[in-house]
Records
---
Amino acid sequence: MTGRQTLHSSVVDLPGVGSKLETTLNRLGIYKIQDLLFHLPFRYLDQTRLTPIGALQAGREYLIEGTVELCQIQFGRRRQLVCRISDGTGAILVRLFHFSRVQQDALTRGTFIRCWGAPRPNKGLMEMIHPEYRILPREQLGLTESTLTPVYPTTDGLAQTRLRKFTGLALDLLGDRSEDPLDLLPRELLDDHELPDLPSALWYVHRPPPQAEVSLLLNGIHPAQRRLAFEELLAHQLSLKSLRNRFLHVRAPTIASDRTNLACFVQDLPFRLTAAQCRVLEEILRDLRRPTPMLRLVQGDVGSGKTVLAAIAALMACISGYQAAYMAPTELLAEQHYANICRLLDSSAIPVIYLSGSLTRKLRNAALERMRDSTPAVIIGTHALFQEDVAFGRLGLVIIDEQHRFGVAQRLALFEKGVAENRCPHQLIMTATPIPRTLMMTAFADLDLSIIDEMPPGRSPVRTVALSNERRNEVIERIAAICGQGQQAYWVCTLIEGSENLQAQAAEETREFLTGMLPSHRVGLIHGRMQAREKDKIMHAYTAGKLDVLVATTVIEVGVDVPTASLMVIENAERLGLSQLHQLRGRVGRGVQESHCVLLYQPPLSETARCRLEIMRATNDGFEIANKDMELRGPGEILGLRQTGLPAMRVANLERDFELLPRVQTAADYLIAEYPEATNALINRWLPQRQIYSSV
Ligand code: ADP
Ligand code: MG
């Protein structure tokens, strides 16, 4: 190199990198020379030692060196170049199926060659198929690598050897181990956490010494890798804290707790709030009174009674003169919330507006008109609520149901939409999915958490059985029996293919089948391909008891509430994850009668599927199920990191590194207080802005 580049230069400044290669490197997330240092190997080759050819054994890779004794083209089933190489201890054949004239000419008798590959026996002689090889000048004989050789994730058009050369150049720029121009973590922090400094960690990971403990490296738990994982988690933590800080520096409307109206509202409810609901309600009301935006996640199992809390928060906002927006993940749920909130706020004289994607233009315009005007109202809808042409006159509170479909990026988009003149509405986020601690500490670190850890009294637990498909007829008899007693059943069709059309088709067939089997009962159908109005009609008929059986796709997964439904049949239950099964099962057990859930499966069951069905049979406790789910799938999978909007990690792995998290949190607070200038640099290094702040 010319010596003018720095780690902050673009990769085009590297020798041999033109615009084509630059694009290729960009595809790997490598823009600056510095980024090469954070592009880490996933495997290593030990080319530090030569093995005598006579000592080779099949089954692993070796580095060998020898003289070409013979080289010729063989015409067998495939044309190939075969070389015999010997080193005095034995001989081996090297076979190349793809070779050029130049290669052929270079491998003449007497040439010194070094090969890396896995030998295998063939008719009494060892052979290597397509080893990596290099022709050696005599003076390099016996000179092997001084470090382990890294293998990097790469992409078409970028050979390992090139990538190794580039990371080597970046390491040279990083310089001596004692200097740390790149290290953003202060010395005392490294000492406190017994972490190596950044240059040593990077050198070690890219070029481990011959005696390195490769098994630690391969498992990603070597101190050098821990140091990098720590820093990456720290950067994520800082970015969420900075998001949180943006909220702290804007103002929110102060929403008073109107105790008189609150008491009336609670009095009129057909039930008494549980202690857990009361506690969470107070947490919400306290946030609403503050002049900074609430950012609260309320987590409560299905049926724990979150809707009524949302209604109270909305009521308080309206009484204080603001609008409240209530956003649901699907049309079906939005409609149901609309019906519920209308009923709950019936005596309050507060207008409830429904903004659906399927309204006629005229009705939609009328709704939009009312929203723009600043009279207090509760506005209910799907994410259509936050589309371009929607404007709120006086938005004070946003309620988001089923958080897991709204990740960090969506929260930010909402924030941008809500912020006007440095003001921002309060945000109340509801989820039935228990959030593992690791995710709470990462993907949701910008939120406060409230947990409704108690179910309303009088619910009898749902009894669950797993039955093989052959026993389908027994299940149908069971449906006939309960429907005869005025109860209702769900039959959920699941299909592994994501296509809505195929799902709808399968559900249609099941409806026909069940109609045939249950001639004296009324079987309805609901699926995602239906018009909202049609879905609405079906749901109303089912809620009103005009249908006995509802065949559905997983559209009913969240939130639907029909207390007289007491039997849930889930087809192909073996294909679903625990959380989804739990959500579906939560549709029954909402009334006074005993409820049942039948998990139909197609044998043979895989070990994990058997495990999942057994867990479902054994417990109704959402927290326990979430914990088991985490054991079976790992925390990242529970909500799906993609859904949380958290960008993928490069080095850290939440399952493996979760015990670093408490220390990462402390370190984040320390850095913000003592070294604020380091925080942005860290965020930029690990999370280029466009990733986390891109809209979805
Ligand atoms: P989720 O938390 O799943 O959204 P919902 O808010 O839909 O639960 O409540 C489920 C059902 O329980 C509703 O029919 C609701 O009216 C009822 N409910 C809510 N709170 C209580 C309570 N404290 N006691 C009895 N029933 C309640
Ligand atoms: Mg709900």
---
Amino acid sequence: MNADAKDTFKQKAFGKTPDGIAVQLYTLRNSQGMEVKITNYGGIVVSVLVPDKNGKIGDVLLGFDGLDGYLKGNPYFGAIVGRYGNRIAKGRFALGGKTYTLATNNNENHLHGGLKGFDKAVWKAEPFSSVEGVGLKLHYLSTDGEEGYPGNLDVTVIYTLTRHNELRIEYAATTDKPTVVNLTNHSYFNLAGKGTILEHELLINADKFVPVDKGLIPTGQLQSVKGTPMDFTTPEKIGGRISQDFEQLKIGGGYDHCYVLNGPRIHNLAVKAFCASSGRLLELFTTEPAVQLYTGNFLDGTLEGKGGQIYQKRSGFCLETEHYPDSPNQPAFPPVILNPGQKYSTTTVYKFSVASSISGGSK
Ligand code: GLA
């Protein structure tokens, strides 16, 4: 580490959207040498550069070198997802005695905010520096009726790169009509920087998960992970049991499930992911009640990413902090309704370090 190193911030043109709007690429760098690139198109985290056990800096995020890759259509690489991360059955829900019909973009269901979700919006961006590090404040006004949702939703997402090698995301929103909100980030991590993530170890602080039907819509029950390949309450390799003959894994084509986090949690620690070959450890902290583990089951080798890398099945995994899928239609699930006068506010932190095992990291 360079003793004189400072937190820095850079901005450059990243290209134009099909409607001719110029978007920027912002580079945040901390005094430890960690670097995060974010574009205000979709609020996408384009890269996260962190050291490995030999001090070699590498990119642990899937994505593209230029804006074109993101515009061509991609499975939400690095993006802010909203208004509703995950699925809403049949793109319908009732609120205040009215039924709302949303855009359906995942067979008969609504997924990740619809046809033009927050991942495709151009956000207003404002860089800042604070006592903790450097950051980017993003703002987007989602208008009443957008993708079928009621209410003008005023959304702010603040990314901060701290001096402790954390990428913190603070989500906030207000509305002028009752609506539903479930914001998340869809970054795909690969702590080795290449290959698949099957050898990564995971620890998930969850005794239960949300079982789904064939359309990946919750059945409405919660199921214990105990004695099943869904159990990551003690460290297990992602690939260790992924191909087992277990109905939920067959339905998801691997892990594509919402884990109900145990509470209360020390510092809100939700998940740890460790890659022995690189020594990189990722710790996930969140105020959200759940996290969707998605193991890149739909990646199929058709996307050419950064540096010409071909993203094969399971080249990355997502940890989407959220409320449970289809909550607007599931009265027993924690509510996702936001009313005028209330403030939606959640925080998720991705912390990177180097460790000799998954038991390393924050205490
Ligand atoms: C989510 C879903 C997956 C898939 C990916 C994007 O994580 O749960 O089923 O749609 O997004 O490919």
